[in-house]
Amino acid sequence: MDQRVHFLTLSTADLDAARAFYADALGWTPALDVPGEILFFQVAPGLMLGLFDAVKFAEDLGGGGEVGPPAGVTLSHNVESPAAVATLVTKMADAGGTVLKAPQEGKFGGIFHAHVRDPNGVVWEIAHNPHWRVDADGRVILG
Amino acid sequence: MDQRVHFLTLSTADLDAARAFYADALGWTPALDVPGEILFFQVAPGLMLGLFDAVKFAEDLGGGGEVGPPAGVTLSHNVESPAAVATLVTKMADAGGTVLKAPQEGKFGGIFHAHVRDPNGVVWEIAHNPHWRVDADGRVILG
């Protein structure tokens, strides 16, 4: 199996709130927007984030799963400095995000970070990670 | 905010089971393996998947969140044909995955797919998606 994720799909209760948060407030550009069904944003080379209507998400998975917000998952976005963490967290809060953890030193990995929940329960970690870099070819270097 | 995910972190109850599934059985190469804490695999240019010990995941998030398997999230891996979907699903099941949905036509998006749950509850969609391609520069084209 190739070591590759092509789509990251998240159960989304309110697609309009997602569009308002990511596209209108944070300035992201949707790759595809099917109202009432799914909203796609490209978030890395070859990787699409799909915000999929929660009812359709559960239906597609089958098995009578509950329709709830994503849990046990965080998405991290790295920025260049601790100050940039604070600036972005404020922007996300102004856009309707909920700050779960104010900017602070992390317990793991030597990072400075904060956690912000989007309007549909998706938790973002906004981090400054001095032990992380990405080479020109996309290879991630840790430590 | 740059439209970018740098880390995708999943709450993982059993890191040894994750290592056995992804590294030993499926042939993935860890980028970093800190036993008892976290196991990293690079899964796209600039994107690291972090399988983070479930107790530490909850502790890091704070707020007394429950320690449970990921929910409301699926990771998709695309392959070149419906037959390749079936082959990979069999390989994942042999490796200890649980087939939630046998290979079949999807209800959404004109795809042929299956769902397989890994030993820690992470749901993979294995798909053949004829309406998807990735350009040489990493741009994803849908439809």
Topology:
Two copies of one chain form a homodimer.
Chain A: E1 7-12, H1 15-25, E2 32-34, E3 38-44, E4 47-53, H2 54-61, E5 73-78, H3 82-94, E6 98-105, E7 112-117, E8 123-128, E9 132-134, E10 140-142
Word description of this protein:
Chain A has 143 residues and is an alpha+beta fold. In chain A, 22% of the residues lie in helices and 38% in strands. The first copy, chain A, has 3 helices and 10 strands; from the N terminus they run βαβββαβαβββββ. In chain A, the strands form 3 sheets. In chain A, strands 1-4-3-2 form a 4-stranded mixed beta sheet. In chain A, strands 5-8-7-6 form a 4-stranded mixed beta sheet. The first copy, chain A, has a two-stranded antiparallel sheet with strand order 9-10. In chain A, β2 and β3 form a beta hairpin. Chains A and B meet through β1, β3, β4, α2 and β5 of A and β1, β3, β4, α2 and β5 of B. β1 of chain A pairs antiparallel with β5 of chain B.
